[in-house]
Model the fold of this input.
Amino acid sequence: MKLALMCVVLVVALPAAFCKNQNRANAKSQACRYKKDKGPCNPDTNKQMVTLVLLSGDPTRCKKANKVIERNCKKACRYRKTKSACDPQTNKQTVTFTLVSGNPAKCKKANKVHQRKCKKVKDCRYKKVKSACNPDTNKLTVSFNLISGDPKKCKKSNKVTERNCKKACRYKKQKSPCDPKTNRQTISLQLVSGDPERCKRTKTVRERKCKKVCRYKKIKSPCNPKTRRRTISLKLVDGAPSACKAVNRVFERKCKKGCKYERSAWSDCDSSTNTRSRELRLKRGKPSKCQSVKTITKPCKRRRSSKGKTCIYQRGPWSECDQSTNTMNRTLTLKHGDQSKCQSMKAIQKTCKQRTKSADGKACKYQRAPWSQCNPVSNTMTRTLTLKSGDETKCQTIKQISRTCKRRAALTAAKECKYTFGPWSKCITSTNTKSRMLSLKKGDPEVCEQTKELKRKCRNQCKYSFGNWTDCDPDTQTRSRTKLLIKGDKSTCKQEISFSKSCTRPNGNERCFFGPWGDFSSCMNGVMMKHRKVIHGSAACERKAVKTRPCS
Done:
């Protein structure tokens, strides 16, 4: 406490770092520190007990004090590797694992012997000698001088190779100051080391948004106890007001809950009041502002069926169909519910199911055949029904029913019919359409159509010139452009098309106006470029006047 007061009083005399270090030291002294006390390892279970002994900290706050944990023993089995000499004929050696510590019954590698290949020893060793970089060719020579090994077997001895110099041109990033109007800055590369004739002295990399331009300060109002809400206003500390959106923004939100309670289980339902209660005890919060104990009540839930009814009945069997009224009855007996509100017995009635019957009263039953394949012409599939039981004089012996195909079946049927495509006809100016004929190439003639006609709208029949943008109109603050007809039928195409755009954008910046696009240039460094002329606009519009694409 004294150190904290000292930091407040002597904030001018002492640096801020000293106060921070003192507060950190106080926090460290109050932290919980433990010491692990490990017991001996049990060889049968391979387990050991670990006790956490408190070294520093408040015993009431430190929960792990004198806590006992059971865990697996580490490094129970320890071995010593013994390698034999390498056999030059087979190029193999034997490795023996001797048990140093651990249970021999559980350690599997005890006294294990296996053979393996000898590790390759590098007989040839070289030293790289690099020459100085040639600035004209940007090349250097590398020679390999033999240090150890047989010159007859070592292939790289006195070998000389030529390669490109590494890191010939080195640059340093330089950032321009941020423009507060556009909130953008340019990044350029300045040459630090390298040949100025070969390396460009400056390179403009790209233009990007400025980082961390807008900074705000939150100002919170006190919490309203009635509505439990407070207002927060954002005040601009650093940045341009035109670029920063949330200047002096004010919004409202809920206050954080200061009182937290521990909930007990709900009591049984009181039949006299039809309610049940629960007790809440204060878990976190100030006792002066929060109630230490709370009791809340709510009405008991009524037992309801799946349909939301309080009266549940047991259903009896359906009676036989009455031929005079064509109805059947069922009796319902009360199973659960208040007898004063629910009926003890109910009778419900419904019409009998109508079936085709013969003269002797027996129904006509049919055997169903599988559905046929989908007919793409009519988009239907059929099924045949054969009489199985019933009077043949009253029942039909054979029936045929049809239904529309499902989408998947229609698609599979359409794939079985393949056609040859004829040429497109000339465009009909009255309807602005063109057509082509399809003749059947492969498929069942009974299912697939012999010929088909496809129709499509004509495209690019009317071609216009680009036109020129006019000067900005001071009254309407707009520029206009008129496009004249170059190619197309004058009866169907408009003679001219005119449209206009505002001189400025919604944010107040000047709008860019361009001319027509040119053709793509020849391939250079794997990239093709095309340009358009900036007619009206600032220097920032030059970025939008260039398009690039990779060479195909």
In short: The first strand starts at residue 33 and ends at 38. The two ends are 74 Å apart (CA to CA). The chain is about 5% helix and 45% strand.
